[in-house]
Amino acid sequence: MSRIEATAQALESRIGARARRVASLAGEIAIEVAPAQLVSVCRDLRDLPELAFEQLTDLSGIDYLEHGRAEWVTEAATSTGFSRGVERGPAPVAEDQARFAVTYHLLSVSRNVRLRVRCRCLAGEPPMLDSVTGIWASANWYEREAFDLFGILFRGHPDLRRILTDYGFIGHPFRKDFPLIGNVEVRYDPARGRVVYEPVSIEPRTTVPKVIRKDHVADAPETGND
């Protein structure tokens, strides 16, 4: 029996109804847990010898705001393939469903197995989950990063404050409705002798691949001299 199969059986027997298996890449295991079960499941994932996920290697937020929406409209594109913006999927997240989720990437050093755990935040604003800093100390800065970039609150975190953006930063830049150009810009004002904040002066511009821009080189006729 492979390590993946043994881990899957251990999850089924020891975690049981508190988690469900979700789609993952070949050779990987991913589970989803409810917010109320997050801490107890994570503690068992660390402490049970047949699981023994001693290390949290990463933690990341997810924003499902545009998940499952229709494909981008372009001037010319096939219905499938890499020219499409997204794949067809389920309907967008409803207002009463959780828009945000957190994924926990775990490593069992002793068993050489990895596991991905996903937990959807409680619906509403602000999104919220319990902190796992009491289980894995490495979650401290990871949770601060998810709070800073996505606005996800972690109950029980010992020092939940921004870690990447400035002290006076407003908003959460990894949210999908956050403007790409930002809201404010900063510059040093020699007259005042300090940095000042001003409304952003950059012209809004769409830079994603769904915008087709004419290229005079690509559109030029072939000369046969190549």
List the helices and strands and how they pair.
Blueprint: H1 3-15, E1 19-22, E2 30-33, H2 38-47, E3 55-63, E4 100-108, E5 113-120, E6 128-130, H3 139-150, E7 153-155, E8 184-189, E9 194-199, H4 216-219
Parallel strand pairs: 2-5, 6-7
Antiparallel strand pairs: 1-2, 3-4, 4-5, 8-9
Major sheet characteristics: 5 strands, mixed
Radius of gyration: 23 Å
Counting DSSP E segments of at least 2 residues, the number of strands comes to 9
Low-confidence stretches: 80-90
- Separate helix tally: 4
Oligomer: single chain
Give the termini separation: 58 Å
| Percent helix range | 10-25%
Helix-strand string: HEEHEEEEHEEEH
Strand order of the largest sheet: 1-2-5-4-3
Q: Give the overall average pLDDT.
A: 82
- What global shape is seen? globular
* Category from helices, strands and their pairing: alpha/beta
Strand share of the residues? 15-25%
Commentary on this structure:
The protein is an alpha/beta fold and 226 residues long. The protein has helices at residues 3-15, 38-47, 139-150, 216-219, and strands at residues 19-22, 30-33, 55-63, 100-108, 113-120, 128-130, 153-155, 184-189, 194-199. The strands form three sheets. Strands 1-2-5-4-3 form a five-stranded mixed beta sheet. A two-stranded parallel ribbon has the order 6-7. A two-stranded antiparallel ribbon has the order 8-9. A hairpin with a 4-residue loop joins strand 4 (100-108) and strand 5. Mean pLDDT is 82; it is low at 80-90.
